[in-house]
Every structure is written in structure tokens, then in C-alpha cells.
Amino acid sequence: MDFFIPLKGGGGPPQSKTLRGCLRSHDLRKVLDCASPLALSSRVAVAELLRQIRSNTSVLNRSLCAACFVVLALMLIFFKIPALADDWPRLGGLGESWISPETNLARSWPTNGPPMLWTAEVGEGFAGPSVYGGNVYLLDRSTNHQDVLRCFSLSKGTESWRVGYDAPGSLPYNGSRDVPTVGETCIYTVGPFGHMHCFDRSTHRVLWQHHLVDDFKDPQIDTAEPPKNREDTLARAQVPMWGLTQAPLLYRETVIVAPQTRKVGLVAYHKSSGKIRWTSGYIGRNWYSHVSPYLATLCGVDQIIMLAQPSDPEKSPSDAPPAIISSVDANTGHILWTNLTPAPDKIPISEPVALGNDQLFITGGYGLGCFALQVKHAAANWDTTILYHTRAVATHIQSPIFYRDRIYVTSFKEHRGTNTGLVCLRPNGDPVWQTGPEVQFDSGSYLIADGMIFIMNGKSGELSLFEASDDGPKLLARAKVLEAKDGKVWAPMALSNGKLVLRDQHQMKCLDVSAKPRERAPSVGP
Prior knowledge:
With about 525 residues, the chain is mainly beta. It has helices at about 15-25, 30-35, 45-55, 60-80, 230-235, and strands at about 100, 115-120, 130, 135-140, 145-155, 160-165, 180, 185-190, 195-200, 205-210, 250, 255, 265-270, 275-280, 295-300, 300-310, 320-330, 335-345, 355, 360-365, 370-380, 380-390, 400-405, 405-410, 420-425, 430-435, 445-450, 450-455, 460-465, 475-480, 495, 500-505, 505-510. The strands form eight sheets. Strands 1-27-28-29-30 form a five-stranded mixed beta sheet, with no helix packed on it. Strands 2-33-32-31 form a four-stranded antiparallel beta sheet, with no helix packed on it. Strands 3-4-5-6 form a four-stranded antiparallel beta sheet, with no helix packed on it.
């Protein structure tokens, strides 16, 4: 159970709206005053502070932003809250931003790349690592029979333990899928066939488990009788064609996942007991929908944004309808608002990204392109407006990153993007630069740290390092770091304590991307 450490005065639950107003005031004293009711009981609480600060970087001056991070660092030391910079605890890292607060990273590499610290053999697939407390966690697959949670030492790569459970089956683009979500005491996983587990981080025992397909079958629909027709088939709860690909979302005392059946969209379990706290209504089906629950604070309200398809998955991309965009109250499960994508979005995969307090940027392939959605809230009414819709970029798998008032995303000509490769956009959708058409990255993952973009080539296993600035695509370093003998190097990466953990279809590697003392440049901030 969380406890509260008031900085000034009493305690209470997080007040995102109040904190955001203080941030906008550019007054550090007000920021400290607003921080008083925030629960600083865990890494998650401090991560929420970081998320709020990052989401408002466009309204902060650099001095205040730096001061906020200094204050948080002092809180971590004074109250002995575990350090944050060493962790990448879920898909997208802290705050789901794909941005690491780490600094003192190398801005150039030897010809053969950053020093390799260790290599581990892994089963085929696309599951990325999480890092927490000096350990690397991976939900692996074992020869089409089991999901296997594995724990490695971040510094040495030795495997500390593994726990498996039966999950027989194979999938198109076979193998592992999902990134574990790690909290202070537990590890939460969703396997490609719908098995959800909560593991004790110390004992490795299963504390509770659910199934995101079987648990949400409707007895009036999911009967033992064979389906009579295609409509009957589609109505039933089922494992998606490419498996369940989502990362559990920790929010306060709950862990939130997406069954996406005809009646239940999201479900929140109590993170310790596994008991259902709330379920949301319909938000679209899971057939071809692979978006992880995305937490955003819009108009002062914590809400989970989801995209999902409502239609027959056999429809061609051009015949598919728009996807449903849903906002679900993170505390209650009530659907706050819905809208539709402005073009067909047959297979929603990448998460949206919040652009400050009242906008979302959303992009996808199969003809969607990209658009910005403005969210307004007055009294009990919510209203959403599409601000623009272009084909400036069209991503495939990876999610966009909003960093220093710029959007970074990979884009594809085959998905009708007019800019390709790694693309930098202004929040209004105007391109700043692109690496294409000459330099492409397939569906490789990327993240930002220390003012630099680490991006993987999903075909070749080459890792590139670019400066995150408006000065064009400035390449700092490039090296082949993975064999990628079967291609499909699409798994997300993780950065922790100067160590970059990445994988292809057969191996996971850890690279030392920290700067040596003489190489260190002045810090560029979070």
C-alpha cells in the first residue's frame, strides 16, 4: 500500500492538473508546493512526476526543467526512494515515453560498434526486454510449448532464474511477443496466447493468473457448438491472428490490460490480489489490434487511450473502416470519449503520444498516415477535434516519440508515407527532416537519450545514432551489432545505466553505450 511523504503540509492523491498549472507558471517554488500531495512511495510515483514534467516541456524553460529534475533527485536521496535512471521497467520505459533520463552517453563508437558486454541465446520472436534493479526480464518462448519468463544480470548477462508455463501453439511471424512490466514487488506478463501472470519478483512464484480470452467469453456467444457462419465466428472471443501483443500498464494500485471482446474493452486488476477493480465497455475487437494501453493526462484527467478495429479482419486495408479511438478513465473504467481515425486503419499497432495537455498525435500504416487530435473538457462534456490529417508519415510497428517539441517517428513509402526513414516533425505535422529515401530502418525500434536517437535497422541489425535536433539528420555513429540472419529485428530496445539491451530472432545482447570520462560532453538534460 502506498504511503505519502508530504513536502509541505498534508497528503493526498496525485493532482496532475494542479501540478501542470504549477509547471506552466515557470515558478519552481510553486512546483514544490504542488508536489506536496504527491505520493512519493515508489518508483512509479516519481515516474509520474517525470511524466508530467516531460509532457509539459513545451511550456517549460530549460532552467526550470533542470531544476525540477534536481529536486526529484534530492527527493530520491533524502527519502531513500530507489533510483530511477537505472530502470527501463516496461514497454517504452519510464512514463511510456521512449525517452531515457540518462546522460553521459557516448556520442561516437568504434567501427565495430559499442563494446559488447554479453550475449544470451533466446527463442525466436519479437519480445523486448525490461530492466529493473539491475536485472533484465524477458518473456521468451520455448519451442511452441511454453512462455518462459527469464531473468538475467544486467552487468554480466548470467541467467539468474526462469519460470515457464504451458502455452502451446504457433503463430504467423512465430515466437515471443510481449514486454514484461516490472514493479517494486511483482512482474506482470501477457503471453501471445492470452495468459496473464503476476510473479513475485523475489521468490519468482506465480501470485495470481488470468486468461484474457477464456476469462471473458460470453456464455451466450462462446458456446461449445461449432460456429454456424463467419459472423458467428467473429463474434466469439479469440486469440488474434498474430497473438496478443501488449504490455500491462501499472496505474496506482491496478494493472490494466486489454481483452477487447464484444463486451469488455479494458480490465483493471488489483496489482497485488489480481481481483478485478473495473472493466470498461466495448472499444473495438482484438483481431488485428495490437496497441498497448497508453496512459495520458489530458485536460487534467488521467485516461487510457486505445485504438482498435471493429471490422472483419479479412477485409483488405482499403476496405477496412476507420479504427475506434477510445479514452477510458484510468480510475473507473468509464469511457470518457470516442472518435474515429480519419482514414482506414486496418491494423493499429503503434501507441499514440500526448503533445502536452490537450493533444494526441496518432500514426499508422495501411493507409492511415498521421493526424493530431485535440481534446477539450468542460463540465461533464468531452469534445475531440481532428486538427490535421496528412500522409507526411505513416509508421508500421514502432511508436512516435515527442521530445523537445518535436515528433520523431519512422515512416514507410509502402504505407503511403510521403516522408520516409526516420522523420522529424513539428507538432503541427510539418516535416523538419527525413533520412529517406536513401536511409531506411525497416521496422526497427528506437529510443531517445542524452539528446540522441538510438535506432535499429530492422533488416540488417545495424544500430545508428543520430542527434535529436533541427539541424537535419546528423549521423553520429553507425555499426552492425546484431547478426539479423533472419531479419525481423523488430523487438523494442531498453536502456539502463549506460547499457543498451537489444535482440534479433536468436540472440539478446548488451552494449556499453556510456561515455568514458574523457569523452563526456556537457549534459543536455532529460
